[in-house]
Design brief:
CATH topology: OB fold (Dihydrolipoamide Acetyltransferase, E2P)
Largest sheet: 5 strands, mixed, barrel
Oligomer: single chain
Order of helices and strands: EEEEHEEE
Distance between the termini: 34 Å
Strand content: 35-45%
Number of domains: 1
Structural class: mainly beta
Radius of gyration: 17 Å
Strand order of the largest sheet: 1-3-4-6-5
Length: 153
């Protein structure tokens, strides 16, 4: 039987990245992200629903995200769903399902503030979006150059 665990998301950060290091020295960043869905209900009224997600990135990709992303930054995430569990302070078992990032692509132009609204991008309702520059020597995260679709003719 075939299996597939693949997630593709475009949205905006709802908080600044949270970088920490494991006891072994590996960098891990937590990104809180919002994506919007627009649709018309049965009466034809335009509705919007926001989905809040947690994305986890590791190692160099985590450090680059922490350095250049901030609340409101637009991004594309490719990854997989990952579940984990732990015992809470009250002794009850807790569970979380998160997106484990395999690739993160910064959207928008480097070094330019984005003036788009949540009509143009997925964003939590009261947040604005802006982008920061990415150092050209990094290859873990890109600014859209690998997002172009080649002509198949």
């Amino acid at each position: 039987m075939a299996n597939l665990n693949k997630v593709l998301l475009i949205g905006n950060l709802t908080r600044d990245p949270e970088l920490r290091y494991t006891p072994g020295g590996a960098a891990v960043v937590t990104l809180r992200m919002a994506t919007n869905r627009r649709y018309k209900d049965k009466s034809g009224e335009l509705k919007q629903e926001v989905c809040y997600l947690t994305v986890i990135a590791w190692n160099k990709q985590a450090e680059v995200c922490n350095q250049y992303l901030h609340k409101g930054s637009p991004l594309f995430v490719e990854g997989r769903l990952q579940s984990r569990s732990w015992d809470g302070a009250d002794g009850k078992k807790r569970y979380a399902t998160e997106i484990r990032a395999e690739r993160i692509q910064f959207l928008g132009a480097p070094g330019q503030k984005s003036e788009s609204t949540d009509e143009d991008q997925a964003v939590a309702p009261t947040e604005k979006s802006e982008s920061a520059p990415l150092a050209p020597e990094t290859d873990d995260v890109s600014w859209g150059q690998d997002a172009a679709v080649e002509d198949m003719n």
